[in-house]
């Protein structure tokens, strides 16, 4: 298992220059591949860039887009920007937590969903907004949350298209 | 279609590219254009585009299908435009795939004008100053449909930065050139000395559009005069303010305008490399910038010896990793260097010691996009727009409780009243406007009785807010100002990098105090405590985040003290927002027992059989408000 991780890590690391400025792009690539940053990989990154592993950890824990714990298959981002907030985003968040079975920042027991608040995706005119993976849902309502998430659950989740308010 | 890689070195090359651009921009057959920026896609534009493409194929491609960015009419998304040669460009709003098909099938004889919002009789180009009429006879056919400049949302606008947004295909370099793009770069490189370029920017009196308003020309002059080191320039696209998406729109809809501005800046200041820092929450903007850079490189507009002038320039995209504080220039520099985004002490300023310790200038996306127009029309022309201290235009995102939400660009000095009531079309329903929030978490709430204020840097700070990057969130009676203050403090508590104790702990304490007020547990002396603590955080924090963090509290305390008092003394939330102070009940007269609320209730707190009166069991009610949302008969009451 460890050697498999090492091999894949080498492949990712090979795409980048051995420079400090590569650190964040490398972590982004690892995050995109594994949906989190495995500890062994962080050590490998430190070796490649010849920087202390604490430096890597410091950056990995500072930025919001990195996760040190495995994430679910789908990332459900509830926008809590100002425009969404005044249109009831917190209530949408509460409902998403119930329907996904995970609290904000957490992952559901079945590892399907990780729920994360996001501070504005820039679709303020269509508030409140929820983003699941790369699909953005406009004019969200509490009553639409379950149906939206169901599209991503294993059965019937094959067709991944965006649905909207009607 | 094969990718044309003809290199652009001369003015004639630009002209040839413009001819090609015009051929797709204004083709001699009908064209259907779908707005495919992020907001369009969120509203369903992808399905509309696919439907249009299918229909075009069926028509044997007698109709061209194309895409564009965002014209800013967000409340009407998804938008579809029809270009009809000899007539003009017609815009349709809230288009579903079915309607898109019908529009394509009916072309060119029936224009389905019953669905049209507005039309453009010609091309109004702020970059060149030219107005080109599309047609002589369009008006007759389209009588009854307003032209764009008569539509309230667009009437007061002057589009310098957003000159191409929603008009050109952002992935088509030739279309950018067809509307005058890269002419300013040519002019700078071939006809001007670097100091003349800086001089023109100084004359324009352009001030930084990221919010702080530092004179751009002065900053450029400082970097130009730096003799030592490898100079860098950076485009700050880390648009973190919630409620603001001007930069996203610009990067997605007109990426080359930003690149051209940076190239001109690079030449003027003697920099060899530029960086565009874009937040990762904007994946389409990141993609568009990568594509635009690749195109510019392939055509010789980026790289070595641009326009045979001997000037070399490179631009790289850096993707943010989700930290609001990285919008602060020194933190952004640390982030590009691969470090934690903690702001640094200034001086030394970035212009002395910036990226990798080298002299660096950082300007916002909107600032860069202004540059080509300033060069083409002249600094004096630019300075003729606006107020004595704030020149030119500013883009704003008008959102919240207004009829017309979207991205607008208006001359400085316009009043908030004109923005909210004329462009925005006022407040929906018969509710009263309470305030407008500007400047994001660093800004404040301007109360409705101050709406005759002209929008410029000084006027907004005089009333306790700031220009900021350009978010404008309109709030009506349904917004609670204590809740808004709590919201921003929660945001800042999360986003404080933690370097300064007073910001890290101060925002936490401020939020705790405001939270307890919102729960009805506040004390009268809390108001003084909030005020004292706010000034302490302001005066003892290193960077802009901490220095402005208390603004949302201070401005709401200043203008909406009565709401704080209502929470503290009467344990009442006048806007009926704060959960701890409200109860949900069902009106026995209007409830018809339809059961819709029972289905959605998150706490299973609603009792009552179908067709019989429902009641809410208060002990189980989570106050999620789902019943209120679902009731079609207004039978759910909030008190």
Describe this structure in words.
The complex is a heterodimer of chains A (about 170) and B (about 650). With about 170 residues, chain A is an alpha+beta fold. In chain A, about 45% of the residues lie in helices and about 10% in strands. Chain A contains 7 helices and 4 strands, in the order ααααβααβββα. Chain A is elongated. Mean pLDDT of chain A is about 90; it is low at about 155-165. Chain B folds into 5 domains: about 10-155, Glutaredoxin (3-Layer(aba) Sandwich); about 195-380, NADH-ubiquinone oxidoreductase 51kDa subunit (Rossmann fold, 3-Layer(aba) Sandwich); about 395-475, Ubiquitin-like (UB roll), CATH 3.10.20; about 480-570, de novo design (two linked rop proteins), CATH 1.20.1440; about 585-639, Alpha-Beta Plaits, CATH 3.30.70. In chain B, β13 (about 395-400) and β14 (about 405-410) form a beta hairpin. In chain B, the strands form 6 sheets. A 5-stranded mixed beta sheet of chain B has the order 2-1-3-4-5, with helices on one face. With about 650 residues, chain B is of the alpha/beta class. The longest helix of chain B has 18 residues, at about 500-520. In chain B, α3 runs parallel beside α4 (about 95-105), α20 (about 500-520) runs antiparallel to α21 (about 525-540) and α21 (about 525-540) packs antiparallel against α23.
